[in-house]
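This part of the workshop introduces the protein records we will be handling. An example says more than a description, so a record of this kind follows:
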Amino acid sequence: MNKKLSFSLLQDTVGDFCSLLKNSVRSSVSLFVMCFSAGSFSVVHAQSSVTVPSGSVSGSFLGAFSSVSRSYQMIIDDTLLSSLVGKKLTSVSFRQLPGSTAAWPTTEVTYSSYDILLSDGVDPANRQLNFALNVVGPQTTVKTGSLVIPAGAIVAGNEADPFSFKIVFDTPYLYNGGNLVIQIQHGSSAGNGLSNHAVSTSTSGYGTLFTACWQGTGNVVQANFSYVKIDAQDQLGVNSVEIGSAQLVYPNPAKDVLNVNADVKLAQIYVYNASGQRVYEQKAASKSSQIDVSKWANGVYVIQIIDDKGNVRTSKLIKE
């Protein structure tokens, strides 16, 4: 592709790309806005998040951040998740007790294994003390491997936004409705665990709208339900956008190797073609990465970069 690509040709290309993406998005998803200039554009979708339960009842549970190995399964009724239908779930987060005054952890905590699986599930009222029987259909592993929680990542519970640490999924999960099962399986960690904010089994809504169970070294038992914030985005959506940043993606146009640099640690990189199809993905763990594009077809792509906080940036990429 000629580096002196005319504005009119680029405008036509972007317009075609916009039309293709619109046709690929479900009618229930908010219409996106495409902004473009001679050198760059971004695709912006509505962002969504749901906190379950929606109230605030005092209680605690060593759910997601126990210092010893355990499995924790949460089941959420579909009526609480209607705003997320047709969107991709990208992360979950948990919070401290409202009365806590110090951030956690005091020093960095590392789980050598921390897996999250999502699936359809039975109604909360039909939950059994058997993880497998609560799952409907296949489970999707959305996060696997280690989890590092930096010192002070989870702010005190009295902060305005206590859901400060997002566990970002390696693979976003397309939620098409139905009851949602969030199953967390993690190994042990050094240091103290965190008793996060939860509701007890006697709280209104428990057993009808949400429920949970957990297992350590013994049998599966009933558990308090941890307050959980679920983040989602429309397909190809963004939380924050950097348009045409030479420091983010370069060279652009690219011929052989594409460099990706950011001022924060990257978690995932996706590339989509003009039809909105994902053609490349990479799990990242640093502030920079290189992508071999030498064998890619010439044309216009969208590169989507997710950092370790769950923020998403997009940029147009030209392969020549």
